Amino acid sequence: MSDRSPRNRAPQVQPDRVRRVAFQVIRQVTAEGAYANLALNKALRDARLSGRDAAFCTELVHGTLRWQGTYDACLARSVSRPLADLDPELLDLLRLGTHQLLNMRVDSYAAVNEMVTLTRSELGQKRTGIVNAVLRKISQRTLDQWIDTVAPSPNEDRLGFLAIAEAHPRWVVEAFDRALTSGPGAAPPGDEAVELERLLVADNDPPRVTLAVRPGLAEVDELVAAGASPARWSPYGAVLEGGGDPGRIDAVASGRAGVQDEGSQLVAIALASAKVDGDDTNWLDLCAGPGGKSALLASLMHDGQLTAVEPLKHRAELVRSNLRAIPGDHKVLVGDGTKPTWPAGSFDRVLADVPCSGLGALRRRPEARWRRTPEDVVELRPLQEALLDSAITSVRSGGVVAYVTCSPHPDETRAVVDAVLARRDDASLEDARALFPGVPDLGDGPDVQLWPHLQGTDAMYLALIRRS
User: Fold this and answer.
1) Residue 387 predicted with pLDDT over 60
2) Whole-number Å distance between alpha carbons of 104 and 51
3) 126 has binding-site annotation
4) 76 alpha carbon, distance to own chain's centre
5) How far apart are CA 42 and CA 71, in angstroms?
6) Is 440 labelled a binding residue?
7) What are the residue ranges of helices labelled H in 127-190?
8) What pLDDT, on the 0 to 100 scale, is given for residue 241?
9) What are the residue numbers of the active site?
10) Binding residue per annotation — 291?
11) What confidence category does residue 5 fall into, taking pLDDT thresholds of 50, 70 and 90?
12) Within a 10 A sphere around the Cβ of 433, how many other Cβ atoms?
């Protein structure tokens, strides 16, 4: 007699392991507020995924999170009830399936079948029907066809169309449009619309892993010998073209080099290159964590001491770790940069890389665009002004301050500088463009705005201020 009977059903098909890891990471990001890069790196290590599997998992996670707003607009037309009424884990599964169908080279049948299997494993049999039906509906159109269906007409609402077509919240698109119209590094008159679209497209391109050597401890040639290519603008930068783990490179593992976007390198180099008469031995990094710019600045000092200030203890430890390999008696203080514990005029150069919305690094933080709100910009403004005011007070007469943000939002860049300088008669804005030799498209100045679509960096902003 056969062992197989209605009670002895065939074992269920197990879900694809890579997709399962990707879904679990996405849940950590959307439900627990995890950072995608940190959660993904840990998940890849724990699941021992490498090579093609790791690359596939990375694209599943980053792509799903990056295009979330666009996919939600498509899903809203494919589900019979409001998306807000769906269980969050079901919505994440549908987003993950939609990304495979609309933005990856995955066979439609395979994508739907794999997501149904994953649904059965993670959420139970009852949810498989809706996943199957919705994803089959999604698969009936291409991404461009869906955008034409769910987005407003570009002739009637250009910014609304771009928000859907390029997966950015509308308020972010509006802020970028303002920056490209009237801010530092603004587009030439008549080219604003084209430049805005180019910027949004560049924001959706996964960034390359960029490294920075610590001058005096390592040379770019060492990174090139390990498989990197020289960076375009920074004399201390190199790019891992094929990605991979930078920790495998000896210079990185030993602290003689680190991972740092080229834009971050350029603003630190600019501060170190500005002309200062007289003593030049005391530098301050007022908002230092996690310490990449601190390490580059300390390495660029010929003699003297860098003081790095960070209010959070765990981030201060990261600064110490970044400075550990660099010679010199450098200090890390845990404290509030708006309440200096040092006398006014103590420093020759001050970096104020202030907390900001982070809109300049959306390409490397795929979830950030959907987490940030316009209220975040408003709430950060008093702190940004207070830190810049403190930085100017902390620098000596004739010394320089670099006000830096990783955001091109006009309310976090020039507006902050203008507001603080309007209250003081002892500081003035200087033209910083000459401190970025060889870097094109820097606009009319005097401040500098870097862009992903022009310089290939994060959208870093720098204003150079001299104390008089």
Assistant:
1) yes
2) 18
3) no
4) 28
5) 26
6) no
7) 128-138, 143-150, 158-165, 170-182
8) 80
9) 406
10) yes
11) very low
12) 20
Q: How confident is the model at residue 11 (pLDDT cuts 50, 70, 90)?
A: low
Per the annotation, does 336 bind a ligand? yes
290 labelled as ligand-binding?
yes
- SS3 state of residue 308: strand
Beta strands in 234-313 (DSSP E): 237-240, 257-259, 282-285, 305-310
Whether CATH 2.40.110.10 fits 17-144: no
CB 61 within 8 A of CB 22: yes
Please list the residue range(s) of the chain that carry CATH number 3.30.70: 209-259
Query: What is the CB neighbour count within 10 angstroms for residue 12?
Result: 10
18-32, 99-113, 175-189, 397-411, range with the lowest pLDDT: 175-189
Q: 287 labelled as ligand-binding?
A: yes
Task: Compute the distance between CA of residue 39 and CA of residue 31 in angstroms, rounded to an integer.
Answer: 12
Per DSSP, 440 falls in state -
State if pTM tops 0.90: yes
Residues of the chain with CATH 3.40.50.150: 275-467
Task: Say if residue 327 is exposed, middle or buried (CB neighbours under 10 Å; 0-12, 13-18, 19+).
Answer: exposed
* CATH number assigned to the domain with residue range 275-467, chosen from the 4 options 3.40.640.10, 3.40.50.150, 1.10.10.10, 3.90.660.20: 3.40.50.150
Q: What is the CATH number of domain 209-259?
A: 3.30.70
Q: Which of 13, 161, 36, 164 is nearest to 92 (CA)?
A: 36
Distance, CA of 302 to CA of 328 (rounded, Å): 10
Neighbouring-strand partners of residue 353: 404
170-222 pLDDT tens trace: 999 999 999 999 878 787 887 889 999 999 999 999 889 999 999 999 999 99
Contact (Cβ atoms closer than 8 angstroms) between residue 9 and residue 28: no
* Distance separating the N- and C-terminal Cα atoms of the chain: 97
**CA distances to 36, 47, 66, 249, 423 from 43, in Å:** 10, 6, 19, 22, 49
Dihedral (Cα; 430, 432, 435, 441), 10-degree rounding:
-160
Q: Give per-residue pLDDT as tens, 416-438.
A: 999 999 999 999 999 999 999 99
- Side by side, the strands of the sheet bearing 229-230 are 229-230, 237-240, 209-213, 257-259
Structure tokens at 452: 């992903």
How is residue 283 written in tokens?
A: 């530098």
Picking from 283, 297, 277, 274, the residue whose alpha carbon sits closest to that of residue 437 is 274
Among the listed residues 307, 286, 395, the one whose alpha carbon sits nearest the alpha carbon of residue 344: 395
